[in-house]
Amino acid sequence: MTRIVIVGGGAGGLELATKLGRKLGRKQLATVTLVDRKSSHLWKPLLHEVATGSLDAGVDALSYRAHARNHGFDFQLGSMDGLDRNLKTITLSPVLDKSGEVLVAAREVEYDILVLAFGSTSNDFNTPGVREHCIFLDSPEQAHRFRTKMNNQFLKLHANKEQKTVNIAIVGAGATGVELSAELHNAVKELRNYGFGDLDSSRLNVNLVEAGERILPALPPRISSAAHSELMKLGVNVMTQTMVTKADVSGLTTKDGAHIDADIMVWAAGIKGPDFVKELVGLESNRINQLVVKPTLQTTEDDDVYVIGDLACCVQMDGSFVPPRAQAAHQMASCCYRNIMAQLQEKPLKDYVYKDHGSLVSLSRFSTVGSLMGNLTKGSMMVEGRMARIVYVSLYRMHQIALHGAFKTGLMMLVGRINRVLRPNLKLH
């Protein structure tokens, strides 16, 4: 029986495991195993909402084990730290508890087809002090860390009348930085309803720092301009063409020698593949540790190893690279599924073609801006306001439908509506 192993339970990896489990695992036509170092899944674009408490990860997170049981695949908890392509095995490091005790010993997992989908990490570009003093908003744990520090700072501000503001600096004005900036102002607005009546936006000082000429550099200038205008209305201090050269306990230092005071610092300035990718024997990687793939999403050195999501360095027909977006991971998962099925049936594989359906940026409850692309709009159409918000939310619903089906997703939406009545609008603990 063919052994298919998927490493990484992000948007692409989990969707792929679900499809293969339903098609092959349930019918015992193949064994499908998902490996992840965490026990639960949370859609990465939601991390800025978890960070501010607008979303409760305990409610929205999905248990890998429960999902695997319901969809015909196996789950193994662990971090991949080795690959032997000759023996067709991956090595998983031991699982330890907080005290360092071994819960699960190191082990090997055999495969016939391997899919690497363990995503990306934040890239600090070796900037001094960043790793020690900044929060990287690339995992639920980091989001929880940010929320704890944020709540503590607001509590100090509330109790200490001499302290005037809470200073938060966010480096990198891509989607994460922009959305977090707006969500922070929403958090202040909500906290006023829960015993912090003296808080308002004037006591929150958010500096959004971007080295480039404009925020949201990957999006069209008109969307960037619209988002910039909305952030300014909220009171966010947007600093473009400002390069950070150092971080310390008191804040950030810029290239021109200026100092940006900060009680909390977030680094969202770029991504890279995990450092151990360089050590994967014989697989071609680029300068940011992504694995180079052929148009079929197979690695250039091994047709039995596929790569999808942020980890894949995939060149498009025009010579540009597929961007690290959730929609790309979703599309890659679908293409990889079809190609694995074709490989098992000894049929020709098809090339992956990235289809840009547009980009949307949520400015919390205040606004949503973005562009829609495709046959519906016959090109690119800028959208904002309520329509853009509906489309933005639908992206997450599409991910849920891919995992759970339409009926269960509908029930989840109903539960979400009920929770808005039963639960506070902000996670306060």
Shape: globular
- Structural class call reads alpha/beta
Say how many strands there are. 28
What share of residues is helical? 25-40%
How many strands, which pairing sense, and closed or not: the largest β-sheet? 6 strands, mixed
Q: What is the terminal separation in angstroms?
A: 48 Å
Strand order of the largest sheet: 5-2-1-11-24-23
- Please compute the radius of gyration using only Cα atoms: 22 Å
Q: What does this protein structure show overall?
A:
α1 (11-25) packs parallel to α9 and α10 crosses α11 (406-422). By secondary structure, the protein is of the alpha/beta class. It has 11 helices and 28 strands. The strands form 9 sheets. A 6-stranded mixed sheet has the order 5-2-1-11-24-23.
Brief rundown of the structure:
With 429 residues, the chain is α/β, with parallel strands linked by helices. It is built from eleven helices and 28 strands. Helix 7 (175-191) links the parallel strand 14 (166-171) and strand 15 (204-209).
